[in-house]
Design brief:
Number of helices: 14
Helix content: 40-55%
Number of domains: 2
Structural class: mainly alpha
Length: 252
């Protein structure tokens, strides 16, 4: 059914949807409730930053929240029923709170979220999406694995989203709008508000400074498994102060 719909919706999108495939995530409320019942918030506060593997604790509830299969209040209540008001619960509720914030902004700003909300704090580029990045063929394992997972599954861990956005905007000087459209085209949980405003947050057009990262950060939160396989010259290698100078010309 999903492929049948995709074939018949060709031309209804700004992006080409002719190659759309059935989503690997089961949809519907019952599926969402099953994922919610299988999620435990225990350990969330300390392990949520780890990009998948045995160390991570993420809910995988975002597609169901995005499409209204689950409500924010019922998910928050399920967490409260499991553990009460613990540090893990509070951190998880904070993430739900960001969804409320993004939605509220979108209700107020509408399509203005696709324009810079503030002046950029650093020089930004206006480049288009490099073909090798979109194909997952940069030679940088962390970036290529992220793209391949995104295209294949419609989902990537939030930390990998931040790394990829920073790489595209600050290292490759691609317009944040190009990256935002690329994500929205593939993400099953792609929400207009959180997607656009998160890209602006990385770019510094909706934050006090740009978001960037270094190799040590990637190694820490992936248990080194991407870096161990990477043969490319790493553009993320170095201290934060060195990267500030390299990317932005000096201390922010």
């Amino acid at each position: 059914m999903a492929q049948w719909l995709a074939d018949r919706l060709v031309g209804c999108y700004a992006e080409d949807r002719s190659g759309a495939k059935a989503a690997p995530v089961q949809g519907g409320r019952e599926a969402g409730l099953s994922v919610l019942r299988g999620f435990s918030v225990v350990g969330y506060a300390t392990r949520r930053n780890f990009v998948p593997g045995d160390l991570t604790t993420v809910s995988r509830l975002s597609p169901y929240l995005r499409h209204g299969m689950l409500g924010l209040a019922e998910v928050a209540e399920a967490v409260r029923a499991e553990v009460g008001r613990t540090a893990d619960a509070v951190k998880f509720w904070a993430e739900l709170g960001w969804r409320v914030f993004w939605r509220g902004l979108f209700a107020r700003l509408g399509r203005s979220v696709y324009s810079d909300l503030e002046p950029a704090k650093v020089p930004l580029g206006s480049g288009t999406m490099p073909p090798e990045v979109e194909r997952g063929e940069t030679g940088l394992v962390c970036m290529d694995e992220t793209v391949r997972e995104l295209v294949a599954t419609g989902y990537i861990h939030y930390h990998a989203r931040m790394w990829f956005a920073s790489y595209l905007v600050h290292h490759r000087k691609v317009s944040w709008r190009e990256g935002e459209r690329f994500f929205y085209r593939h993400l099953l949980d792609g929400d207009p508000a959180s997607n656009a405003l998160s890209w602006q947050w990385v770019a510094s057009t909706f934050s006090s400074k740009p978001y960037f990262f270094n190799r040590e950060n990637v190694e820490k939160y992936t248990a080194g498994r991407w870096c161990a396989r990477c043969q490319a010259r790493c553009p993320f290698d170095g201290s934060y102060s060195a990267l500030e100078t390299r990317l932005f010309g000096g201390k922010l």
